[in-house]
């Protein structure tokens, strides 16, 4: 773990005890929950249905940098299986306590301490349980990441090819060196002063994510520091879908060829020739 990542771990371990008790955080969480709900169709995932578990169908969510579970609480009812990952042990503890208090089983919802963004990924995250997600979400953690490109690449690798979607929720550009306001207390953990649309699109394309889309929440969020000073920020939602594997692309191409051939055989040889001759070609004699 790098020095910067360790600083983040310590900072969020320290914040954990009051993280869910500050009123402004509650308001911000509710705003983002509303933003996600307003974009349910835009996200583009096949959401869970009532009989999915009965027939063994899963919709898997990876809540990365999960904290105490804001994203999971917002959209958890839309999926069948949730895995959270965070570098803060205290945040993970609170996440799991909240899940268990809601009567959820560990196999349904569970978070672990881990880091997908370091030079090496721990063995406990290199199992099938942490692969082939339908959706991965980073909720307001992206500006804390030391290497955004690596973050997107590593999470993309965990998505289902051709269908898996990555959502990043973060801030439009802000002054990360502002002397007052909420960032003053943990300025050492903020690596980037937000992101513009063109930056996010470039990152998504470099990670081979398709169908990029970018949506800004109409209402700004307001954040407060220890000294009572506040600042407002605009929140965006960035979306991309993992491209198919090479074999997936070949299979799709073969499938399209078979469809064309099938359509041609259905109309018969005479009709095929007539179609090629066109209206000026006359009729084929019997």
TrEMBL record:
**Domain Methyltransferase type residue range list:** 62-162
The record's listing under Gene3D superfamilies reads: Vaccinia Virus protein VP39 (3.40.50.150)
Q: Which GO terms describe its molecular function?
A: S-adenosylmethionine-dependent methyltransferase activity
Alphabetized Pfam families for the sequence: Methyltransf_11 (PF08241)
The source's superkingdom equals Eukaryota
Q: What is this protein called?
A: Methyltransferase type 11 domain-containing protein
């Amino acid at each position: 773990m790098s020095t910067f990542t360790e600083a983040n771990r310590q900072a969020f371990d320290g914040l954990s005890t009051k993280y869910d008790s500050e009123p402004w955080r509650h308001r911000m969480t509710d705003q983002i929950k509303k933003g996600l709900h307003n974009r349910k169709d835009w996200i583009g995932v096949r959401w869970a249905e009532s009989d999915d578990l009965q027939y063994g169908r899963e919709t898997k969510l990876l809540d990365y940098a999960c904290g105490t579970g804001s994203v999971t609480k917002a959209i958890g009812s839309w999926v069948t299986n949730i895995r959270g990952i965070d570098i803060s042990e205290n945040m993970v503890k609170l996440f799991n306590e909240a899940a268990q208090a809601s009567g959820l089983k560990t196999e349904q919802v569970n978070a672990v301490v881990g880091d997908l963004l370091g030079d090496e990924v721990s063995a406990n995250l290199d199992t099938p349980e942490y692969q082939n997600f339908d959706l991965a979400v980073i909720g307001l953690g992206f500006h804390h990441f030391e290497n955004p490109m690596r973050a997107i690449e590593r999470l993309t690798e965990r998505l289902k090819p051709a269908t898996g979607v990555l959502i990043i929720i973060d801030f439009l550009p802000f002054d990360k060196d502002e002397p007052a306001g909420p960032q003053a207390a943990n300025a050492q953990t903020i690596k980037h002063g937000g992101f513009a649309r063109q930056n996010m699109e470039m990152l998504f394309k470099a990670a081979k994510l398709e169908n990029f889309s970018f949506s800004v929440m109409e209402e700004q969020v307001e954040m407060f520091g220890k000294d009572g000073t506040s600042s407002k920020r605009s929140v965006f939602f960035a979306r991309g879908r993992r491209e198919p594997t090479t074999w997936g692309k070949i299979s799709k191409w073969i499938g399209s060829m078979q469809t064309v051939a099938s359509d041609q055989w259905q109309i018969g040889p005479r009709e095929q020739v007539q179609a090629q001759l066109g209206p000026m070609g006359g009729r084929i004699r019997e």
